[in-house]
Amino acid sequence: MFADILLALPLGVLLAFTIGPVFFVLLETAITKGFRAAVAFDGGVVLADVVFILIVYFTTSSILQRVKDDPLLFIVGGLIMISYGIISFIKLKKDFNKKIDIQEDENQCQKTNYLALFFKGFLLNFINIGVLGFWLGIIIVFAPRLDMDTNRIIVFFSSIVIIYFLVDVIKILIAKQLKNKLTAFHIYKIKRTISIILLIFGIFLLAQGIFPEGKEKLNEIFTENPELN
């Protein structure tokens, strides 16, 4: 069991530092809304990962492989992320134009809807079909090394998720230290940057769905030229 936990350790750390929309929104939530809000958001993210793991485990890899590469899923996920990025950007600009001061911003933080943040984290992670591909790859590579033993697989994946969550908590605590050093304008800039990042990720997902042949060509290039990886 201890060996399986050690095997999961680097994967949990790697997952926590994977650069994606969730990574940026988690830090932004910690900076602008505080520790509890960021943990609520991260709880939704973790739940989405658990759902993906269960889907991968209880579904045959051949079916999952076809679903994972379905262009429609990339298109839907991309459109949702683009819409969220645009709406957030417009709303932020309107709020800032009203010249909301720091005190008003702090009052809003006290009224944070943790359930909404939890759902936001779940949705943002769940619409990223690349996460499904990540867990599919993990189970294909590591399940045989665990002798396909259910108990060992449970320990392995539970360890990845727990380590991932604990590292995220450390990231949240570090990001939270910046909160008192930021002005309302700085917070506005951070939120606007996150909206743009989400928009970019959404466009990337959408492009993968509209031009799936381009994605396949890139995979072929990296496969034939491993030195590019």
From TrEMBL:
Which InterPro entries would you find in this protein's record?
LeuE-type
This entry carries the following GO cellular component terms, namely:
plasma membrane
Q: Where primarily located?
A: membrane
The highest taxon in the source lineage is Bacteria
Keyword Cell membrane listed? The answer is yes
Membrane topology label? Multi-pass membrane protein
Keywords for the protein's UniProt record, in alphabetical order: Cell membrane, Membrane, Transmembrane, Transmembrane helix
User: Where is it localised?
Assistant: Cell membrane
* Transmembrane portions of the chain: 6-27, 39-60, 72-92, 113-141, 153-174, 194-211
Q: Does the keyword Ion transport apply?
A: no
- A GO molecular function held by the record: amino acid transmembrane transporter activity
Give the PANTHER family listed for this entry: ARGININE EXPORTER PROTEIN ARGO (PTHR30086), ARGININE EXPORTER PROTEIN ARGO-RELATED (PTHR30086:SF20)
Name the record gives this protein: Lysine transporter LysE
Per the UniProt record, the source organism is: Capnocytophaga cynodegmi
